[in-house]
Amino acid sequence: MGLIFTPIYDLIESGVSTKWLSAGLQLGASIVIISLMLGLMRAAAVKAWGYASQLPARSHTVDRDRKHAEQLGLDTSDVNWRKTFPLNLFAPESRTPRNAFHYLRARRLIAFTKVESLRRLAGAEHLIDVSFERLLSTLLTLARPRYSATLSLLPLYAYAWDRSPRADWDKFITFVSGLVEQKAFLPLSLALVGLVVVASPSPLLDRIRARDEAAKETNKLLTELNGLLGEFRMAYADWVDIMESSRHEYFRRLASDSTQSTWTWTPHDGPNQKHFWPNQINDRLGGAAARRLEAAGTRVTEHMETIRDKGLSPVAHRILSPVWSSFRMSTLDNPMSHWTREIGMHYPLQPDNISRELKEKVIRLSRQVELTETESSVATALKLDWELTRTMYHFDDRLRDAYLLQKRLDRVATFLNKRLYGTTWSRLLSVAKS
Predict the structure, then answer these.
(1) Confidence of residue 341 (pLDDT cuts 50, 70, 90)
(2) What is the reported pTM?
């Protein structure tokens, strides 16, 4: 820090002879430099956060993994290319370090991503979000006027301490000590505070009372929200488990409906015309778990709209500021905000969206299959294979997003529970107070 501030302070002192003017310019330079540094650090943190949050999505794409499969010597233009894929990492085709690397990158093409891997990726992404949120929160706090002014005084204080004679500092400390020891100092200070309170444009006591009443009402609404979130979290966990176990049925149904029950498809075998299994995906999409989740989401949305209609959104924002990024990224703030165009919550693997997307993808795949049927059945199977592989990647990514949403909701619920039941420190403090 001295390498930045000392040359500037020396330049100001050499160019300005008036002592008080020189001190003012030095303070102004400190404020500008500190503000610029905090702004640059905040911008860099936002940029790094955006890049880090996209790493899981960038790690695997169908085209990139397909190139890795071709590096293993597989002909991906052949409809039976999956049958020649190495069985495991120790197969003869993948024993060399180079082939082992390509095998590890390309194996997602022939199987759904394991649930444990998706949960680990969601946990890593959540940790990144929480870490950057705390960093940005600290930077925003330091950027407030009272904190940035204090930071701006520190280099100036160090500079003055280093260059001023010790006798000047002793005189200043003696003056302050004598002022504190004066018996009239405390009454005078209290009188000044009372004058500020009375002379304020609006009564300060009324503002304090209004703030406390708004906080009390918001705390009551957030306590009710905690109960509704508990219902939604349990319903969503059950629904995600159903979607997790229905991945094979979803893609068999998608392949069957788009080819008029001619083809079926699995990640390991690819397109197949021989084996068909009973499909219950429609029953699950309209089942009790889906209806329970939609009802819980509706109750949460209506409650958030109540907070908005009562004008308590800013108060709720301030109370939830420690976990606001998790609250906002889970779209809980959509129905509470006056400025968003979104209506209600939106979350990964939403039942209505799954049903609608299934119908839309069946229509789109049917059209693509019709275009390739004029060529040959092999071309149809190959087109179907790669389209469903891309859909599989997208479905796994949304499943990872669902696990990430669960972690965000858990973090918000943990924060609300601590406010409701207290922590160890708050309970000890209340016991000591009583």
Answers:
(1) very low
(2) 0.77
What 3-state class would DSSP assign to 266? strand
pLDDT by residue (tens digit) across 22-80? Answer: 777 877 888 888 888 888 888 888 888 777 777 665 567 888 888 888 888 888 888 88
Among 391, 388, 380, CA closest to 79: 380
| Helix pair angle (288-309, 351-373), 10° resolution | 120
Q: Which helix (H) or strand (E) holds 49?
A: helix 19-53
Residue 189 token pair: 């200070």
Dihedral class, residue 32 (left if φ above 0, else alpha if ψ from -120 to 50, else beta): alpha
In this structure, what token pair is assigned to residue 369?
């299959």
Residue 145: name the closest of 35, 227, 237, 12 by CA.
35
Residue 314 to residue 287: CA distance in whole angstroms: 38
CA gap 413, 233 in Å, rounded: 9
Structure-block tokens of residue 310? 């009562």
How is residue 79 written in tokens? 């409809």
CA distances from 151 to 31, 138, 142, 147, 155 (A): 8, 13, 8, 6, 8
What angle is formed at CA 96 by the lines to CA 92 and CA 97, rounded to 5 degrees? 145
For tokens 């020189």, the residue is 22
| Spatial separation of the C-alpha atoms in residues 408 and 114, rounded to whole Å | 21
The answer to whether 187 and 273 are in contact (CB under 8 A) is no
φ/ψ of 313, rounded to 5, equals -60, -45
CA atoms of 270 and 393, how far apart (whole Å)? 14
Q: In which region does residue 353 sit, left (phi positive, over 0), alpha (psi from -120 to 50) or beta (all else)?
A: alpha
Calpha distance 293→219 (Å, rounded)? 25
